[in-house]
Write a structure and sequence with these properties.
2 copies of one chain form a homodimer. Chain A has 15 helices and 9 strands. By secondary structure, chain A is an alpha/beta fold.
């Protein structure tokens, strides 16, 4: 059965523009909160294929999105490379043993050995594919090497990224070694996600905006492109979505072999269309805080539809949905995307 | 005596391109840390004209910048409007009584009554002007109404701005009332700073990037322009620098009566020059983390000089200097800016 979401990724005509929401399996859903409470904590939920499958499917059933996205966390990669990951309530992820030098990096597991430890992710994918309706797509994902490296070097989320950036400007060789090692694991991790059954790949570079424009390609984009090329050479039928958050200043510099460019909300959709619309299908980009108001949601959906005209487009938010958004407003967003784009 | 910095703000030819650094009176300087320790805490330092004057002058003497910037904090405005400001170590500023509704706003002091309470700022300016060398300029500053309002509504720094943005999309009238009341105070505050002796005004919109492009003018820029127009009509000889951090996607939309546009490091200097260089003098924009390396500093200073060619330009960082930067690297930055631009 043909999946409208996959068709849209390849720029084919579809009866309406499909839509999903970043972080759609998340805290705004009471049903998610219930399963998460049963799991005890966030990492347990990632490690439990049955529960991870359940929360992956919730937004498809409850909110009506056109694609499910695998429930997991980008930091399972450094975790299985051997780093000590904790989620501290109210503070986010922490590694007690950040990478400070080459010896720290050498201690980490790489390549297929690390990727093979993520069996709970592949098991989750298989379970989801048994239960997901045939016309819905399953998106698998990974963090970009740069975004993963920021946590591995800083040891936690950061406002200034000063430790990684000190490395970037004072010891770029070490940063490149870290990025290369992570890239190898990501390639094999995504290959195994595809083998387990995902229909689409999304690579999230959540901290793209932390790198100055003249250094972005060197320290992030080229590694993302390397991953995309590797997967495309083996699985040309699996579309790839690249989402580098916050690079509106240099869209001209975007290159590589992938199908969909994810537009964040800081980038005007008409600018993205002008710079990238002929090369890539565009995904996005409603400002997630508009979900607090149905009127503001409709206004934005109509404005985006006016720019994209229902062609080479996938609706989404320009970043993740926030925990305090009313579920009925999320449903309204999905309904409006379908309404304005129906042919 | 003519001040090279003021001349440069007006686009006049100068013997070299002047330079200062955002947050130049700050924690990277041991001399600052000493005065701050004596003051007991950050707010005491803002309230003490003698000590505030001392730290304002330190970077001029120690690092060799061409302009001093008044030592103060943007949040003294809501403080003197009647809000309960605390600086919690390691967590930043907090207001225990954020604005939730119109009654909260009505309780705040506005206009000249609030601006008149900031005597310690005006006294600091007078003291600085007595001691600052005649050829150096003193920059006074304020936060933009939007940036101030985010703290007044959220009660603290925020990653998601979800409380203000809920207001933006669900109750924009209330947000506009808050912004208008803050704008009135800011106009009179800056007027009194000018009367006390500052040579240049900078308006910092540190959280410009929190607003989606299509709403930026409505909720921030137009208020900044209103303040600039008010000051220009009374003090045409005082140059105004606007610094909206993180709006590279829509530089075309920048308008208003002011002299200098502050370019943050996420905006490539050649893009800023192309879009705004003929209308405004440009200030900026080295990525502050380059200060960790002298080589990376020189590389960036030379690249910026190559774009700007020593014309209609003021050197600066693209954001504030970080606390762990070696003082000798800051000195190197200043020296390099002077070296590459000397005529």
């Amino acid at each position: 059965m043909s999946k409208i979401f996959v068709d849209a990724c390849f720029g084919k005509e579809t009866p309406y523009t499909p839509v999903w929401m970043m972080r759609q399996a998340g805290r705004y859903l009471p049903e998610y909160m219930k399963v998460r409470a049963e799991a005890g904590n966030f990492l347990n939920l990632c490690h439990d294929p049955k529960k991870a499958c359940e929360v992956t499917l919730q937004p498809v059933d409850i909110v009506g999105v056109d694609a499910a996205i695998l429930f997991s966390d980008i930091l399972v990669i450094p975790l299985e490379m051997g780093m000590d990951l904790k989620f501290v309530t109210g503070e986010g992820p922490k590694f007690d043993d950040p990478i400070k030098d080459e010896a720290d990096l050498d201690r980490l597991i790489g390549g297929d050995e690390a990727a093979s430890k993520l069996t709970y992710v592949y098991d989750t994918i298989k379970l989801i594919k048994e239960k997901l309706a045939d016309d819905k797509a399953l998106i698998g994902f990974t963090g970009a090497p740069w975004t993963l490296a920021t946590y591995m070097i800083e040891g936690e989320g950061t406002k200034t990224y000063n430790i990684c950036k000190k490395m970037m400007y004072s010891n770029p060789e070490l940063l490149h070694k870290i990025l290369a090692k992570v890239t190898e694991v990501v390639k094999l991790y995504m290959q195994k996600q595809i083998e387990a059954g995902i229909d689409v790949v999304q690579i999230f570079d959540s901290w793209a905006a932390a790198i100055e424009p003249s250094k972005y390609d060197e320290f992030s984009w080229k590694y993302m492109v390397e991953i995309a090329e590797y997967l495309k050479s083996k699985y040309p039928h699996i579309p790839i979505i690249m989402f580098p958050k916050g690079i509106p200043a240099f869209l001209d510099k975007v290159y590589g072999n992938f199908e969909v460019f994810g537009v964040d909300w800081s980038t005007p959709m008409d600018l993205a269309k002008e710079k990238l619309g002929s090369k890539y299908v565009l995904q996005g980009n409603m400002e997630p805080c508009r979900l607090y108001s149905k009127e503001a949601t409709t206004e934005s959906v109509e404005a985006i539809q006016k720019v994209m005209g229902g062609k080479r487009h996938i609706f989404n938010l320009g970043h993740g949905i926030l925990p305090d958004v009313p579920v009925e407003n999320a449903k309204h967003f999905i309904k409006e995307c379908h309404r304005v784009s129906k042919k």
